[in-house]
């Protein structure tokens, strides 16, 4: 009994001591003050120095929260109870959020730096007049492969993946649209195809790829491919850039049949309390120098045309991540296919995963 | 007799159950009758009885069973040997300690250890067995799962063994029983409560494993947890996700009733 | 006899080696100047420096421990009450019903618990942040405490209570002088398992948090897309070493004090 009392006493005392320390740290950082800006972003997706710079420039305090997937983020914002001023969803999430009325329209007069964005990255189908969103980072979906492990063989198309020599050598990302889209592209269909016959055909073709697939994984794919666990991976370009930085034997290619063009965008959720501050932040991130600094830190491709002048040449000259768009075939942005069709995509993907045993 | 005063424990506990268990169950039941577009339907339940979901259910049960069995086989001797050490409480705590390191980090470590060029294969090479594919296999999946659940099995068994009166063991030996018979007829039955608690603490959560199926098994193993996660988050089909959850709860209820106390 | 002891020790040693290998792997790479968890390039302490410079991360760590300690303590108390409640219920049907309800949170995937708690909190109107996270952690830790305490209660011989009553003990004394001391190992087990549940939880915390409040688990999982920097390894190493020191230190201090008070071996 004595031991029990001792334990609980120790626990409560420690807890309150820690609370006290945390409270003071929070105060020192200014978190409990007013005039704050709450940002909801992917983990490690912004240069922390930029946040400090913004705080210094505007006197606002930034509260930073992170999420690990679009769906989780949307679920949180939709449910309410949160006060995020800026969020960074991917393009398909932007169109979903638009549909559900979760976004506040942007006041372009407060975003003068918008002019620095490459016009090719504006007015896209998921947000035609950029009423709600501003691009943050962009990239493609493609194939990363280990030159040495493939014995010098090059990969240039989706159909190359079905090569018998690649048995058990491929890692796929755990994304229904990416994988089914790969199947569709390899049959020269659009990524946004809603024809069920085409989709089933794509799934059947994917089933034949099964012997070549080692595993379907998530973010750990970067570590696995850099560790040479597999020779080939279907990944997002941002991940590929990171992998290549770690292992020079790797190369990245956007398959010639076509692929997905993705965007992560800054939006203002309807639960925002500090809309003025949100606009200031978005404009701040659109500043070419800041965008360049961010691009260097995060390692993804920036849509900010002027920012390219501030980036080292070896980054901007890398055609894999800053491609010359005339040379790439069919890059499509994911359209919002509606709940039922998306559910169908996911059912197919689930079946595909189970087929593999 | 004194029933009224004993029921006082029920009050806070039932309050907790109503707020945090019954309410979510009702929510889940409620959602399970809606389809993806918000219309009332029992189509979700019909969908559950299709081959793909039944296969998933079987798969979940099978792996949960395997994990529980292996955890038991490994944890029981561990608990037993721990009771024989000098600083048993200390060693027990040291067994629990690794569980407080974040799961994702530990799994990343396993990705490195079980990798083609990792530690495990280096050891296998040194032993002359040669490099083997460890990751993305059933073996690695069960191994890592057992790794994670071990303390949950060791603790209750350790507690049960500590309670065991050593003179009972001595008596059995004196009467001529072999070590195995002593274990089978004396030790194990007297620790069965601990074993049951451990099995419940492992089997039940193992039914809805999700993270590990993706990280270590590379989605070669699909459990009901995988499906639920997808339906809730990706498809936003809360209806189907809730339906699967209903079946999970029913399955768990059956397990509880079957392993219940017969005293 | 000596032969047997060697085998026993070997088994335990192997267990500990396997249990700690991933941990040492993490610690090893926390010193890697290469920045990743393969290919050790050189020794560096930069990751440790980074930990101490990241105030936001430090606050998150403190938050995590405050929640874990408080939630475990409170859920242990609630769980013990729950175990007692179930123990005293006589009817089989009622017992099974309570047990089933108890285990619902253990069998449910975190996503569902997170989502349903979120709905619950927004309906009641509880602000998302420290309070909602604490309540959630208490809620999902109670079942495991019950599972750890119940077997000890069942092992307890009811004659103990009868004897105490015969000797004139009232309800409170029976509880504090007979029952609780007997089930203490179960209570400790429940407490430590509750700690594990709380420290490791991601999905539930993610759904019910807000207002800038975050725990280490949420932060780590959120960084997975970008790649988890080695400063997290460094942080985990520090936390791990600290916990080891705490555990070992507490153990030897309590050993000494019990020897001082002449409390010899109980069994």
Automatic annotation (TrEMBL), chain A:
The keyword Iron-sulfur does not apply. The lineage of its organism: Bacteria, Bacillati, Bacillota, Bacilli, Bacillales. One of its GO terms (molecular function) is polyamine binding. This is Spermidine/putrescine transport system substrate-binding protein. It comes from Thermaerobacillus caldiproteolyticus. It holds the Pfam family SBP_bac_8. It is found in: Periplasm. GO terms for cellular component: periplasmic space. Keywords: Periplasm, Signal, Transport.
TrEMBL record, chain B:
It is a multi-pass membrane protein. Its main location: membrane. It is found in: Cell membrane. The keyword Nucleotidyltransferase does not apply. GO terms for cellular component: plasma membrane. Keywords: Cell membrane, Membrane, Transmembrane, Transmembrane helix, Transport. Residues 57-259 form the ABC transmembrane type-1 domain. The keyword Cell membrane applies. One of its GO terms (biological process) is transmembrane transport. InterPro entries: MetI-like, MetI-like_sf. It holds the Pfam family BPD_transp_1. The chain crosses the membrane at residues 7-31, 61-83, 90-114, 134-158, 201-218, 238-258. Belongs to the binding-protein-dependent transport system permease family. CysTW subfamily. This is Spermidine/putrescine transport system permease protein. The lineage of its organism: Bacteria, Bacillati, Bacillota, Bacilli, Bacillales.
TrEMBL record, chain C:
The chain crosses the membrane at residues 12-31, 57-89, 101-128, 134-153, 174-196, 234-253. Its main location: membrane. PROSITE patterns: ABC_TM1. This is Spermidine/putrescine transport system permease protein. It is found in: Cell membrane. PANTHER family: PUTRESCINE TRANSPORT SYSTEM PERMEASE PROTEIN POTI. It is a multi-pass membrane protein. GO terms for cellular component: plasma membrane. Pfam families: BPD_transp_1 (PF00528). Coiled coil: none annotated. Keywords: Cell membrane, Membrane, Transmembrane, Transmembrane helix, Transport. Residues 61-250 form the ABC transmembrane type-1 domain. One of its GO terms (biological process) is transmembrane transport.
